[in-house]
Design goal:
alpha/beta; 3 domains; two-stranded antiparallel sheet; 7 strands; elongated
Length: 508
């Protein structure tokens, strides 16, 4: 899609230049040559459009393949699974926790959920500039001439016409038309970015479309939101420059009035009162001085004002983007738990009924290192050292086993059929704080047992709107003996046991 947008931008620029050449040809050759050129241009545009479409499709396919590692070894399995799930999705219920309520394919999310995800998972400052870019793309008029005027009545350059256009004016019109073409090209690119950014949120409005996995299904929209933000930043800088020029004219008029008033007051203080004629002559001299000053100083002052305004606006844009970037960096390594300042960060989002984590990104290098130490200690003591995960991906566990991520091969997910029939091999139970994935077992664990490890994240937002600054829990690990007590009806864990929480609790 990006390749298609770039290609469309370039094609639009070329089309604008051909418009100017076509108009000149119209004067030189009349209607027949104009018709021929229009037909030729249309054939060129159709061919170029198909070429750009083919290029965009090839690039999109290559990027899709390169960005999906499972396709490298099993290229057709994913497509087969996709078709299979869509043919039998009626029985495929994936719970979704959204703003304090549970949803599923049989009870779909509100139609605006895609727009909400985009508005709450993109840094607020970047989102504001993207909104400005969207509005400017929709309503902004292109600066420059809207059309190229006829350059003469007779001949290509109109030398024999009474209103023949000079070479200088033709050059100015050509430059204006080229500037218009560039402006139209930029607006066309921003329009494409707006269309691509809105596609996925709009698709989620259609009934029956899968809407689980939170913002993951909107990832393809985010690069185009960034493009809109860049366009909005450009519009903001240009507006500041124009405003500075307007302010200059206001100051100039006030300065002129002050000069007139000062001189007239000075004349009035003369010992002999001036006549009307003398006052009129004085005013004329003042106007002459003003015009001399204006011709000499106005270009320099306007240029200086525009430069100052442009630099100031660029500083504001940089600072705005930096705030959002710092908030995102402070989310490390739980980038996927990011919510922007409009919700108060991940802490405010959790209080409003959103899930703090979803993709098991909280099971990071720190959690793996801690668990491997405990696995080794359990093995040395002769205790079970297997690990059971709640609501985990079996494919991800396959990768863990293949890569040797954990120090034990005994790793399973609770969704594996009959896994609890052979549970004596497990020593640890890992669960993430994702309400839509909790089972009754996990709810009982939260109520009656205490974790031996807890992964938390401190709110990364520097200036959350609601001021929330506390930590939130993303992942917990329990001793499997607590799970065994719950399964056998023995109640909760030992009340005296204190959780050995992660000292480096993702407070980045």
């Amino acid at each position: 899609m990006t390749a298609g947008a770039v290609a469309a931008l370039w094609n639009r620029r070329r089309s604008g230049l051909r418009d100017w050449e076509e108009t000149r040809g119209t004067v030189a050759g009349g209607k027949e040559e104009k018709t021929e050129k229009v037909s030729e241009r249309r054939r060129d545009d159709v061919g170029a459009a198909f070429g750009h479409l083919a290029l965009a499709a090839a690039v999109a396919a290559a990027v899709f393949f390169a960005a999906n590692p499972p396709l490298w070894t099993r290229p057709f399995d994913g497509f087969e699974t996709f078709v299979s799930l869509n043919l039998r999705r009626d029985g495929f219920e994936i719970p979704i926790y959204f703003l304090g309520n549970f949803y599923s394919p049989s009870r779909p999310l509100p139609w605006w959920n895609g727009f909400f995800w985009a508005a709450t998972t993109v840094p607020t400052t970047l989102l504001a500039f993207a909104a400005l870019g969207s509005v400017a793309t929709t309503f902004r008029r292109t600066r420059g001439n809207s059309a190229v005027e006829t350059v003469g009545e007779n001949g290509e350059n109109g030398e024999s016409g009474e209103n023949a256009t000079t070479a200088a004016s033709r050059s100015e019109k050509r430059d204006a038309n080229q500037g218009r073409a560039r402006g139209d090209g930029g607006r066309s690119a921003a329009g494409l970015a707006l269309a691509f950014a809105a596609t996925l949120p709009l698709v989620r409005v259609v009934p029956g479309i899968p809407t689980h996995d939170g913002a993951r299904l909107l990832i393809a929209s985010f690069p185009f939101i960034a493009i809109l933000a860049a366009f909005g930043a450009t519009v903001f800088v240009e507006w500041c420059e124009r405003t500075a020029e307007t302010a200059f004219w206001g100051r100039a008029l006030r300065r002129k009035a002050a000069i007139l008033d000062a001189v007239i007051v000075k004349i009035a203080k003369l010992e002999r009162a001036p006549s009307i004629e003398n006052e009129s002559e004085t005013r004329e001299r003042i106007w002459e001085k003003w015009e001399e000053w204006r011709k000499r100083e106005e270009p320099k002052e306007r240029k200086q004002n525009a430069r100052t305004a442009r630099l100031s606006a660029q500083v504001v844009v940089f600072a705005a983007f930096a705030v959002g970037g710092v908030d995102l960096i402070r989310s490390a390594p739980q980038y996927l738990s990011f919510y922007n300042a409009t919700l108060g960060g991940v802490v405010g989002a959790t209080r409003r009924g959103m899930e703090a984590t979803y993709y098991w990104d909280a099971f990071d290098a720190d959690a793996v290192a801690w668990l491997n130490v405990e696995i080794a200690a359990a093995r040395a003591d002769g205790r079970p050292s297997g690990v059971l995960f709640g609501s985990f991906s079996s494919q991800t566990l396959d990768y863990y086993r293949r890569w040797g991520t954990l120090a034990t091969p005994e790793t399973e997910t609770i969704s594996t059929p009959n896994v609890l029939l052979n549970r004596e091999r497990f020593g640890f139970y890992v669960v993430q704080r994702r309400p839509s994935g909790w089972t009754t077992l996990e709810l009982a664990l939260f109520k009656t047992a205490r974790p031996i490890y807890r992964q938390t994240v401190r709110n990364p937002i520097a200036f959350p709107i609601d001021g929330a600054r506390r930590e939130i829990v993303l992942l917990e690990i329990y001793d499997f003996r607590d799970v065994e007590r719950i399964l056998t009806g023995g109640g909760g864990g030992e009340a005296a046991r204190s959780p050995r929480e992660n000292e480096n609790s993702a407070a980045r």
